[in-house]
Amino acid sequence: MSSDTKAPSSPTTGAFFAQAALSFGIALVATTVGIAVLPVDPWVRAFLAIGALYTVTSAFTLAKVIRDRQEDTAVAARIDRARMEKLMAEHDPFRTPGT
Fold it and tell me: Which superkingdom heads the taxonomic lineage of this protein's source (predicted)?
Protein backbone atom coordinates (compact mmCIF):
# COMPACT_ATOMS: atom_id res chain seq x y z
CA MET A 1 0.00 0.00 0.00
CA SER A 2 1.12 3.53 -0.58
CA SER A 3 2.21 5.81 2.22
CA ASP A 4 -0.69 8.22 1.59
CA THR A 5 -3.26 5.56 2.53
CA LYS A 6 -4.50 6.16 6.04
CA ALA A 7 -6.88 4.30 8.28
CA PRO A 8 -10.31 5.92 8.12
CA SER A 9 -10.84 8.38 10.93
CA SER A 10 -14.02 8.74 12.89
CA PRO A 11 -16.22 11.30 11.13
CA THR A 12 -18.05 12.22 14.35
CA THR A 13 -16.79 14.47 17.10
CA GLY A 14 -17.38 14.00 20.80
CA ALA A 15 -19.79 16.95 20.79
CA PHE A 16 -21.84 15.44 17.96
CA PHE A 17 -21.99 12.10 19.77
CA ALA A 18 -23.08 13.81 23.00
CA GLN A 19 -25.75 15.80 21.17
CA ALA A 20 -27.08 12.68 19.44
CA ALA A 21 -27.18 10.69 22.70
CA LEU A 22 -28.85 13.55 24.58
CA SER A 23 -31.38 14.05 21.81
CA PHE A 24 -32.19 10.34 21.80
CA GLY A 25 -32.59 10.31 25.59
CA ILE A 26 -34.87 13.35 25.61
CA ALA A 27 -37.04 11.93 22.81
CA LEU A 28 -37.31 8.56 24.55
CA VAL A 29 -38.21 10.12 27.93
CA ALA A 30 -40.74 12.49 26.33
CA THR A 31 -42.42 9.65 24.45
CA THR A 32 -42.49 7.46 27.57
CA VAL A 33 -43.99 10.23 29.71
CA GLY A 34 -46.50 11.08 26.98
CA ILE A 35 -47.67 7.47 26.78
CA ALA A 36 -47.78 7.14 30.59
CA VAL A 37 -50.01 10.20 31.14
CA LEU A 38 -52.23 9.68 28.10
CA PRO A 39 -55.88 9.52 29.24
CA VAL A 40 -56.68 6.16 27.66
CA ASP A 41 -57.24 2.57 28.76
CA PRO A 42 -54.20 0.60 29.93
CA TRP A 43 -54.30 -1.72 26.91
CA VAL A 44 -54.03 1.28 24.56
CA ARG A 45 -51.11 2.61 26.61
CA ALA A 46 -49.43 -0.83 26.46
CA PHE A 47 -49.97 -1.00 22.70
CA LEU A 48 -48.37 2.42 22.21
CA ALA A 49 -45.46 1.48 24.50
CA ILE A 50 -44.78 -1.71 22.56
CA GLY A 51 -45.02 0.24 19.29
CA ALA A 52 -42.51 2.81 20.56
CA LEU A 53 -40.16 0.07 21.77
CA TYR A 54 -40.40 -1.69 18.41
CA THR A 55 -39.64 1.59 16.62
CA VAL A 56 -36.54 2.19 18.75
CA THR A 57 -35.16 -1.33 18.30
CA SER A 58 -35.86 -1.19 14.56
CA ALA A 59 -34.01 2.12 14.30
CA PHE A 60 -30.96 0.61 16.03
CA THR A 61 -31.06 -2.41 13.74
CA LEU A 62 -31.36 -0.23 10.63
CA ALA A 63 -28.46 1.95 11.76
CA LYS A 64 -26.30 -1.14 12.31
CA VAL A 65 -27.17 -2.59 8.89
CA ILE A 66 -26.38 0.71 7.16
CA ARG A 67 -23.07 0.99 9.04
CA ASP A 68 -22.10 -2.60 8.22
CA ARG A 69 -22.91 -2.09 4.53
CA GLN A 70 -20.85 1.11 4.45
CA GLU A 71 -17.89 -0.63 6.13
CA ASP A 72 -18.09 -3.54 3.67
CA THR A 73 -18.09 -1.11 0.74
CA ALA A 74 -15.12 0.79 2.17
CA VAL A 75 -13.12 -2.41 2.71
CA ALA A 76 -13.88 -3.64 -0.82
CA ALA A 77 -12.80 -0.29 -2.26
CA ARG A 78 -9.52 -0.40 -0.33
CA ILE A 79 -8.85 -3.97 -1.49
CA ASP A 80 -9.56 -2.99 -5.11
CA ARG A 81 -7.26 0.02 -4.79
CA ALA A 82 -4.47 -2.12 -3.31
CA ARG A 83 -4.82 -4.63 -6.16
CA MET A 84 -4.66 -1.86 -8.74
CA GLU A 85 -1.58 -0.34 -7.10
CA LYS A 86 0.11 -3.75 -7.08
CA LEU A 87 -0.66 -4.30 -10.77
CA MET A 88 0.62 -0.85 -11.64
CA ALA A 89 3.81 -1.37 -9.61
CA GLU A 90 4.49 -4.71 -11.34
CA HIS A 91 3.78 -3.38 -14.84
CA ASP A 92 6.86 -2.57 -16.92
CA PRO A 93 5.86 -0.83 -20.16
CA PHE A 94 9.34 -1.33 -21.65
CA ARG A 95 9.42 -5.12 -21.19
CA THR A 96 9.12 -7.06 -24.39
CA PRO A 97 6.46 -9.78 -24.51
CA GLY A 98 7.76 -13.23 -23.58
CA THR A 99 10.72 -12.04 -21.53
Answer: Bacteria
